[in-house]
Design goal:
Keywords: RNA-binding. Pfam families: RVT_2 (PF07727). One of its GO terms (molecular function) is RNA binding. The structure is a single chain. The protein has 700 residues and is an alpha+beta fold. It has 18 helices and 27 strands. Helix content is 29%, strand content 21%. Strands 16-17-18-19-13-20 form a 6-stranded antiparallel β-sheet, with helices on both faces. A 4-stranded antiparallel β-sheet has the order 1-2-3-4. Strands 9-15-14-10 form a 4-stranded mixed β-sheet, with no helix packed on it. Strand 1 and strand 2 form a beta hairpin. Helix 15 runs antiparallel to helix 16. The longest helix has 21 residues. The protein starts with a helix and ends with a helix. The N terminus is likely disordered.
Length: 700
C-alpha cells in the first residue's frame, strides 16, 4: 500500500477480518477481507471514484500476501479526441482494468509511445513518396506500405523478431517485396486484349522494373481496353530490341527467409555488350569507313596520316629476311565534353608493341606522369593569388620525339604500298611502342630547360621559371597546363616548336571539370559520379548519409561466400577501381571507404559487394560535392594526422589518415593501412605523423 499511495506517513494494518489504513493518525480507508481479497472503502462517500470490483480488476485481485508488493495500476494516456473521450471507451477501460488519463491540449509529447509510432510511420510514408516521385494522391498507399514494412522489420525489444513473426509465429516473407512506386508490367487477360497485342510478360505475377519510376497520376481501368498502350513492334522498336530476360519463377513456399540470416545478394545490373555502331572503337578500319559516321572517321584517318607524313615519322624501305616487323592497328575514339556530346573524332595508328623484345628494339620504358597532389596545389595557389591558368594540347606529341632504336613496322592499312615487299623503318616513336612515352618526356623536358625552366625536385612533371612574372607548368603526357599572370610569350614560344591546340582557360583536366567564377575555382567530378551510378544501376537508389556503416569490420570471404559472389558475375576489382578515380582527385570523403574496400580485391564476397553498394548510395546523395578553392584564404600549409590503433582484426595493423590544406583549402589527403603492427596507440600515432611529415616536406 505504500507503493500504491506513495505517502511516507501511511500505516498499514492487516488483521484477519478487517483492513484499516491510517494517514496522519486519521482513518481514511477501511476494508473487509473476504476469501483473501480486500475491498477498500473510503470513509468519505464523496471520495469514492470507483467501485471495489473495478479496483480489484485493476489490481489483479491481490491477496494479503501480494498486497505488500503491489504497484501502480496500469494507465493509458490519450488526447481528447472523440474516439477516446466517450462512454464506450470509458467502459472498455474500466472492464480492462486500466486508468484512462487525458493529456492536456496541444501536448502530444505526453502520449510519447503512440505519437512516436505515428511519427515513424508518417516519416516512412513521406520517404516512399519522395523516392518514388509519386503525387500526394498516393498518400494512403504509402502509409499502408509503411505499416506493412514496419510489421516485417525486426524489433530489438522482441529479440529482433518482427511483429509479424511474433504474432503469427512465422518468419517474415521479404523476398517478394518490390520497390514502392516502380514500374510494373501486368498480364492482361486474353479476353480483354486484341489478338494482335503483345503479351509482354506471361506470368501470374507482376514483373517490377525497380529502376524505373513512371509516377503515373492514376492507374488505368483493366476493363477499359482503349486506355492501354498498344505495345507492338512498329512503335516500340527500342523496347523489342532490348535483351529479353526470362522472369524468375516465384515459389510461394521457397520465398521465405529469416531476417537474421546471411546478407541478401544484390544482383549486379546486366550491361549490354552490343557495340555502338556509331563508335567503332573496337572495330577494324573497314567497319569504320563503311558505317554511318564514315565521313568523320575518314577525315580523322586523313588528318593522322598527314601529321605523320609532315613529321617524317619513317621511311619506306625494301623488306629483308632478318627484319623483325611489328604490326599496326587503327584505334578510333570519340572525344566528348562534360555533357557527353561528341566534339571530335580521333583516329590513331598504333604499333603492336607487345611483339617488341627487351634489348633488341627497346631499353627504357618508364616515363613519369603528373601527380594530382601537385595539380591541386598549383590550382589552389593560383586561386589564392588570382593567377591565370590555361591548357595546351600538343597534337601527335609522340611523333615530335626522336627514336634511338631501330624499329620496323609492316605497312599500315591506308597506304598504297605492297606490304609483302616493303616495310617502314621508324624515325619517330608512334603510339604503341614501349619506348614512346619516355622518348616524348625527354623531348619536352629538354626543350623546357632550354627556355629557362627548372624541374621540381618533388615532381618531375612540374616545371617553373623564375622570371618576371614567374610561370609554373604542369603536364600529364601531352596535356599541358600553364599557371601565371602573363602567359602570352610562353604560348607563342611553344607554338613555334610544336603543333599546339590552344584550349584557353582550363575547364576540364584529367576527367575533372573546372568551374571558374569570381576569385574562385571549383573542381567537380559530378558527371563521372553519375556515370558510375548509371553503370551499376543506382541512378535512382535511396541516398545514404555516410559512406560506410559505422563500426564496419569486413574479413576475407570463405570459399562458400566467394562462390556466392561469383554467381553474380560481377567484377569487384573494376567496381572499386571506378570509385578510386573519384576518391583520389576530388572526393576525400570516400577515401577511407575506398581504401578499406580495396583490401579485399583478391577474395571478395557478398558483404564486400553490399558495402560497395552502400558507397554508391552515399554518392547518390552527394553527387555534387566538389573542391572549392577561393582567393580569400588565409595562412599557409596546415596538416593533421590521426591513427586508429589495431583497426584490422585479421592483422591488428593500424590505420593512418592525414590531410594537408593550403590557405585553408584541402589539397592532399590519404588513408592507408600501416605496414607493420604497432605495440601502442602512441606508436601508431607516431607512424601516422611520420607519413604526414614526409608528405609536408615533399610539398614544401
Amino acid at each position: 500500500m505504500i507503493k500504491l499511495l506513495k505517502d511516507s506517513s501511511t500505516i498499514e494494518k492487516l488483521p484477519e477480518e478487517r483492513f484499516q489504513m491510517i494517514i496522519n493518525h486519521d482513518t481514511t480507508m477501511t476494508g473487509q477481507v473476504i476469501n483473501g481479497l480486500i475491498s477498500l472503502v473510503h470513509t468519505e462517500p464523496r471520495a469514492l471514484i470507483s467501485t471495489g470490483d473495478i479496483w480489484h480488476c485493476r489490481l489483479g485481485h491481490p491477496s494479503n500476501q501480494a498486497i505488500k508488493i503491489l504497484g501502480l495500476p496500469p494507465s493509458s494516456s490519450t488526447n481528447r479526441g472523440g474516439e477516446f473521450e466517450n462512454k464506450n471507451f470509458a467502459e472498455l477501460a474500466a472492464s480492462c482494468g486500466f486508468v484512462h488519463l487525458f493529456a492536456p491540449t496541444s501536448t502530444p509529447e505526453h502520449n510519447g509511445f503512440a505519437e512516436r509510432a505515428n511519427c515513424t510511420i508518417l516519416n516512412k510514408a513521406r520517404c516512399l513518396l519522395l523516392t518514388s516521385k509519386l503525387p500526394r494522391s498516393y498518400w494512403a498507399g504509402a502509409v499502408n506500405t509503411a505499416l506493412f514494412l514496419s510489421n516485417l522489420m525486426p524489433t530489438p525489444s522482441r529479440d529482433n523478431l518482427s511483429p509479424f513473426w511474433a504474432w503469427s509465429s512465422k518468419p517474415s516473407r521479404i523476398k517478394s517485396l518490390k520497390t514502392f512506386g516502380c514500374k510494373a508490367f501486368i498480364l492482361v487477360h486474353k479476353n480483354r486484349r486484341e489478338w494482335k497485342d503483345k503479351a509482354v510478360i506471361i506470368t501470374r505475377h507482376a514483373l517490377s522494373v525497380e529502376d524505373s519510376f513512371p509516377s503515373l497520376a492514376a492507374n488505368p481501368e483493366i476493363h477499359d481496353c482503349s486506355r492501354w498502350v498498344d505495345i507492338n513492334k512498329e512503335n516500340n522498336e527500342a523496347f523489342f530490341d532490348c535483351e529479353y530476360i526470362e522472369p524468375e519463377h516465384i515459389n510461394d513456399t521457397s520465398d521465405v527467409c529469416h531476417l537474421d540470416s546471411s546478407p541478401s545478394v544484390e544482383q549486379a545490373p546486366k550491361i549490354s555488350e552490343n557495340p555502338n555502331p556509331c563508335h567503332p572503337k573496337n572495330h577494324c578500319r573497314r567497319k569504320a569507313i563503311s558505317g554511318s559516321k564514315s565521313s568523320f572517321w575518314l577525315e580523322a584517318i586523313r588528318r593522322e596520316l598527314n601529321a605523320m607524313q609532315k613529321l617524317e615519322f619513317g621511311d619506306v624501305i625494301p623488306l629483308e629476311k632478318d627484319f623483325k616487323l611489328a604490326g599496326t592497328t587503327w584505334v578510333f575514339r570519340q572525344k566528348r565534353n562534360e555533357l557527353n556530346e561528341v566534339i571530335e573524332y580521333k583516329a590513331r595508328l598504333f604499333a603492336q608493341g607487345f611483339s617488341q623484345k627487351f634489348g633488341q628494339d627497346y631499353l627504357k620504358t618508364f616515363a613519369p606522369t603528373g601527380c594530382l597532389h601537385s595539380l591541386r596545389t598549383l590550382i589552389a595557389f593560383s586561386a589564392a593569388h588570382n593567377l591565370d591558368f590555361q591548357q595546351l594540347d600538343i597534337r601527335s606529341a609522340f611523333l615530335n620525339a626522336p627514336l634511338d632504336e631501330k624499329v620496323y613496322l609492316s605497312i599500315p592499312q591506308g597506304l598504297q604500298m605492297c606490304r609483302k615487299t616493303h616495310c617502314l623503318r621508324l624515325k619517330k616513336p608512334i603510339y604503341g611502342l614501349k619506348q614512346a612515352p619516355i622518348a616524348w618526356y625527354k623531348r619536352l623536358t629538354s626543350w623546357l630547360e632550354g627556355l629557362g625552366f627548372n624541374a621540381s625536385i618533388s615532381d618531375p612533371c612540374v616545371f617553373f621559371r623564375k622570371t618576371h612574372p614567374p610561370i609554373w607548368l604542369f603536364f600529364h603526357v601531352y596535356d599541358i597546363t600553364v599557371f601565371g599572370s602573363d602567359l602570352f610569350s610562353f604560348k607563342e614560344d611553344i607554338k613555334k616548336e610544336f603543333e599546339v591546340k590552344d584550349l584557353g582557360k582550363a575547364d576540364q583536366m584529367l576527367g575533372i571539370k573546372l568551374i571558374h567564377s569570381d576569385n574562385s575555382v571549383i573542381l567537380s567530378q559530378a558527371h563521372y559520379a553519375e556515370s558510375v551510378l548509371a553503370l551499376y544501376g543506382r541512378s535512382e537508389c535511396k541516398p545514404m548519409m555516410t559512406p560506410m556503416v559505422p563500426n564496419t569490420h569486413l574479413e576475407e570471404s570463405n570459399p562458400k561466400e566467394c562462390s556466392r559472389f561469383e554467381a553474380l558475375n560481377t567484377n569487384y576489382r573494376s567496381a572499386v577501381g571506378s570509385l578510386n578515380y573519384l576518391s583520389v582527385p576530388t572526393r576525400p570523403d570516400i577515401s577511407f571507404a575506398v581504401s578499406f574496400l580495396s583490401q579485399f580485391l583478391k577474395k571478395p564476397g557478398i558483404h564486400h559487394w553490399n558495402a560497395f553498394l552502400h558507397v554508391l548510395r552515399y554518392l547518390r546523395g552527394t553527387v555534387d560535392y566538389s573542391l572549392h578553392y577561393m582567393a580569400h584564404g588565409v595562412g599557409g600549409l596546415c596538416a593533421y594526422s590521426d591513427a586508429d590503433w589495431g583497426n584490422c582484426r585479421q592483422t591488428r595493423r593500424s590505420i593512418t589518415g592525414f590531410v594537408i590544406s593550403f590557405k585553408d583549402f584541402l589539397v592532399i589527403w590519404k588513408t592507408h593501412k600501416q605496414p607493420s603492427v604497432s605495440l601502442s596507440t602512441a606508436e601508431a600515432e607516431y607512424k601516422a605523423l611520420t607519413d604526414l611529415s614526409t608528405e609536408v616536406l615533399w610539398l614544401r
